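Re-run requested by the PI after the first attempt was lost when the workstation crashed. Everything re-entered from the original request form. Ligand of interest: S-adenosylmethionine.
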Amino acid sequence: MAGSGKLASFRLPPLPTIGEIIKLYNLRAQKQLSQNFLLDMRLTDKIIRQAGNLRNSTVCEVGPGPGGLTRSILRAGVADLLVVEKDTRFIPGLQLLSEAAPGKVRIVHGDILKYRMEGGFPAHIGKTWEDEPPNLHVIGNLPFSVSTPLIIKWLEQMASRTGPFAFGRTRLTLTFQKEVAERLTASTGSRQRSRISVMAQYLSTVKNCFTIPGQAFVPKPDVDVGVVHFTPLVQPQIQQPFKLVEKLVRNVFQFRRKHCDKGLQMLFPEAQRPELTHELLLRADVDPTHRPFELSISHFRALADAYAGLCEEHEGIIGYEFREELRQKRHQHSRRRGGEPCAGK
Ligand code: SAM
């Protein structure tokens, strides 16, 4: 196994290459688990370098698969590596790696979407939120099929300081489809600016580190891949509950090409819509003709504060969901057309 001298601070004993491991255990990639493997150690080392200095650190690796990235993490000199892998077929190969690095690797056979990371590490590795980030890192060449729900879950946990963030401002180094990586880091006014840009950037410093061409993976995915690094902010840029911010941002971006007041209107029930939308924009001092992608985090902060105020003053606003109302109307309409009696009529 070739290694890049700069990164290595722990030497693994001679092991079969990742390619040999794949053959040995007959680990054909499964499409439904979005399995695209990285076999090039220079690339896995490069990903690991984005996480920072890992010497004596604690790492959680998501989806280690045949273990290419895992080897780079070990060679960086970590003290404790917890890997979470869903596919049983990879467990024997990971056990081999665990034996090669005694006392360093713990294997969890499970689903990262369900795994409770609070219980995975001792409390003493934690730092207070205001302190420097803890010496705990989450790293993963994520399965595309789970990367978006996973980052949304982790952003919510960042806001509530639970999951990996129960230990402080834990840093994440993760791969995404290139388009998702671009959206995560898109600045105000850019074409890729979207819901996920605002949600990620109000809570963390997000860096799009580099792009890995699709052909570097086996099998080759249809897209290129971006490596993204997140450091939670000490003070989130919006000081309102995550769910409220998420609802506001979702409503604004549902009409991306229209003026932002079009999406904002949908935060309010029909009867109060014009009046409360006007009040919201006035209080937030936001120009209604801005397009959603032109709104900065400061605009969203002002809108979230104004919206929270209106929710306090007007009963029933916070729970109002335009799409839910639409769904119920459609349901009633189709029942009427089908000749069934309508509930409540
Ligand atoms: N880390 C390896 C690499 O870089 O070559 C494998 C990456 S592959 C894109 C994604 C890995 O995540 C696979 O090993 C797959 O089995 C695993 N995986 C898929 N869904 C998962 C889930 N929900 N929880 C944990 N692992 C999962």
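Saved to the shared folder this time. The chain is about 40% helix and 15% strand.
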